[in-house]
Every structure is written in structure tokens, then in C-alpha cells.
Design brief:
Blueprint lengths: L1 E6 L7 H14 L6 E6 L5 H9 L7 E4 L16 H6 L2 E6 L2 H7 L3 H13 L3 E6 L3 H5 L3 H12 L12 E4 L13 H19 L8 E5 L7 H5 L6 E4 L6 H13 L1
Parallel strand pairs: 1-2, 1-8, 2-3, 3-4, 4-5, 5-6, 6-7, 7-8
Helix pairs in contact: 1-2, 1-10, 7-8
The structure holds 2-phosphoglycolic acid (PGA).
């Protein structure tokens, strides 16, 4: 089953706006479809959205978070623990998004700590990796992906590797309206599969889910989703428009 994840980033700016957006998505996606859908709002909206979900037993949309801290509790001002997320029925947690790597300075070491904490809390991490335009120009895609996979998945037990979702998110394609072509995304996704199987072995890594993210929308969704090897999409700006996001999900359902 394909997985389509909405990453709202730091939007919308009011609780009412968040409720309306989620409501509009939920209303159009009643019942269990052939695609798994998750929405990752900012932390502060999670309780309100959980309320909406609790009142709508038929709505199968899962909750996700955009980040979390690597410790369970304690003196870590401003941070959010994976246990708090689990308590709010969160299932997915994005880790290592390029905006956090670049703007907040998150290193592979930090991302690795977070990823293991997410797994430790029995939640599903969505690990974002991808190259810059410069790295692509220099033909370094494979090296960049390999370094990120090695470092971000360090010390993850083999038994848990298939719980990790990886999102191939070329940095030059994020929020630029310049998406990666379906073929190039497929090449990178196959390359990620190969690297993961080289590190962790072929057995037990076959079912790892790998998504594409970067200016995905209803016009290009099919280019990625029709490849069996691409297991879904991580959608940023297009997920802020309920109609557009639902169109993407419907494309996934129609395949
Ligand atoms: P975008 O963002 O769809 O706006 O390019 C994707 C992401 O950052 O996950």
C-alpha cells in the first residue's frame, strides 16, 4: 500500500486554520482507502486534530509529527519527547528534514539519536535524505545518500530496519516547483534500496518503504507513484490545499 504524507511545516498560523484544513481533508477521505494517509501538523495542533479524529471513527488518516527530541523526558527546555507524541496517538515522526539540517544545524549524529528514540517509542520514523544541486552537479548523489544512510541509521538493529520509512528528498526540489523527474527519483530510490541492503543485508530490508518528496503535486504524483519501487510521497506545499492533497491521494488510490 502506498503511503502519502502531508508535511504542513510551520503552517497554518491559527488553530482554527489547522482544524479547517484537517477537517477538509478528513471529510474527503472517509473510510479505508487503498492508500495510507498521514498528516504532520505543527506540534501545537496535534491535540486539536486528535480531537477531530476521535470524533470521526471512519476517518483513517494517521497522525504524524515533524520532529522530536531524542530523550524521553527531563530538563530539555522547549523539546518534545517521543512519548508525548505517542500519547497523542502519533504514528509517524519525520526526522532529518533538510530544513532542520540546514536552518537548525541538525547533524547526522543528532538525526541518528532522534531516529533511534522514535523507534524506541514504537513510532515510525520518516528519515529524509537527499543531495543539494551542487552535489548532484558533481555526480555525488550516491556518496551523499550512502553517507546519510550509514550515519543516520547507525546502531539501528537489523530487526527494526523495515520499520523505518526513508524519504528521498533532493534538496534542490523542495519548495522550488522544480520537481525531480519520475525517472531520476526512481534511480535514487533504487540506489537507496541497494545501499540499505548492502549495509543491513538483503534479507529483512526488502519491504522498507521509500517515498519521494520535493514539489510533488497532483500533476506529477503519477510519475512517482506508478513505480512499484516508490512507495509513496512526502508532500509539503501541495498538502496545504485540501483539494490538491486529496487529488494526490486519489491518484495513489487509482493505481
Ligand atoms: P514541498 O516540500 O512539497 O513543498 O517541496 C516537501 C518537503 O519538504 O517535505
Amino acid at each position: 500500500m502506498k503511503l502519502i504524507v502531508a508535511n504542513w511545516k510551520m503552517n497554518p498560523t491559527s488553530r482554527n486554520g489547522a482544524r479547517q484544513l484537517f477537517d477538509a481533508i478528513g471529510r474527503r477521505l472517509k473510510g479505508r482507502g487503498r492508500v495510507e494517509v498521514a498528516v504532520c501538523p505543527p506540534f501545537v495542533y496535534l491535540p486539536s486534530i486528535l480531537d477531530i479524529l476521535s470524533g470521526r471513527k471512519k476517518c483513517q488518516v494517521k497522525l504524524g509529527a515533524q520532529d522530536c527530541f531524542w530523550e524521553e523526558k527531563g530538563a530539555f527546555t522547549g523539546e518534545i519527547s517521543p512519548l508525548m507524541l505517542r500519547d497523542l496517538k502519533v504514528k509517524y515522526v519525520i526526522v532529518g528534514h533538510s530544513e532542520r539540517r540546514k536552518l537548525i544545524g541538525e547533524t547526522d549524529e543528532i538525526i541518528n539519536e532522534k531516529l533511534r528514540a522514535v523507534l524506541g517509542a514504537n513510532l515510525t520514523p520518516i528519515l529524509c535524505i537527499g543531495e543539494t544541486a551542487e552535489e548532484r552537479k558533481k555526480g555525488k548523489i550516491f556518496q551523499v545518500l550512502e553517507k546519510e544512510i550509514r550515519e543516520d541509521l547507525k546502531k539501528v538493529p537489523k530487526s527494526k530496519i523495515e520499520k523505518v520509512v526513508i524519504a528521498y528528498e533532493p534538496i534542490w526540489a523542495i519548495g522550488t516547483n522544480n520537481p525531480c523527474s519520475g525517472d531520476d527519483a526512481l534511480t535514487a530510490v533504487l540506489c537507496i534500496r541497494k545501499i540499505v541492503s548492502q549495509i543491513f543485508g538483503k534479507k529483512g530490508t526488502r519491504n522498507i518503504r521509500i517515498l519521494y518528496g520535493g514539489s510533488a503535486n497532483s500533476k506529477n504524483a503519477q510519475d512517482y507513484l506508478f513505480h512499484d519501487s516508490i512507495n509513496g510521497l512526502l508532500v509539503g506545499s501541495a498538502s496545504l490545499d485540501a483539494g490538491e492533497f486529496v487529488r494526490i491521494v486519489k491518484i495513489g488510490q487509482s493505481l
